[in-house]
Structure to design on (201 residues):
């Protein structure tokens, strides 16, 4: 959607924040590689990037967030496929302790959680977190001279994922599909229109 607003964009920044719980599986996966390098898309190529190597302040619906570089988001790949933009960076909001671990600090705490405390943590989001949680997303496309921004508030992240899968399945079963590998961008804004909990900023 940001690329449609700025067809000659050569840079894309994607940032997200979430309110809600985290599943034990998600936490275990994140902590196990929290200080490991990931990627950034530069000149159409995925190059090595460190977690939390840069910061970004962004705003969605009047709410301000401070995010750090998240080198593991799948959007680095899918957004490249969807838009053809050569330079893509992805940011997420993490708790302060997680940011310290991303920078290689407090790894003893990471090990303590993984090796001893994980079974004591909630298995997943509570019913209240699933109901009341929110996802905040912004995409900023630029061409070196101007910027175009698209932002939205969505439901809690796990619920948002399930709702998107539901709508994609409906579209496929309704005959709206294209052969070969696709990203959800195939369905454009239509995918999210009318979805409960989605508000455009």
């Amino acid at each position: 959607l940001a690329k449609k607003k700025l067809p000659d964009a050569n840079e894309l920044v994607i940032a997200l924040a979430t309110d809600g719980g985290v599943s034990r599986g998600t936490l275990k996966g994140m902590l196990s590689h929290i200080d490991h390098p990931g990627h950034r898309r530069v000149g159409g190529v995925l190059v090595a990037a460190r977690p939390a190597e840069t910061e970004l302040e962004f705003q969605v619906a009047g709410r301000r967030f401070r995010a750090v570089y998240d080198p593991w988001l799948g959007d680095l790949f899918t957004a490249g496929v969807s838009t053809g933009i050569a330079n893509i960076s992805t940011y997420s909001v993490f708790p302060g302790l997680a940011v310290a671990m991303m920078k290689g600090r407090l790894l003893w705490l990471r090990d303590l959680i993984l090796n001893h405390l994980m079974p004591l943590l909630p298995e997943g989001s509570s019913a209240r977190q699933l109901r009341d949680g929110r996802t905040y997303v912004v995409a900023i496309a630029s061409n070196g001279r101007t910027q175009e921004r698209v932002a939205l508030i969505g439901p809690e992240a796990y619920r948002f994922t399930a709702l998107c899968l539901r709508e994609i399945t409906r579209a496929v079963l309704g005959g709206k599909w294209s052969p070969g590998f696709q990203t959800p961008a195939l369905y454009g804004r239509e995918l999210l229109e009318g979805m409960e909990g989605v508000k455009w900023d």
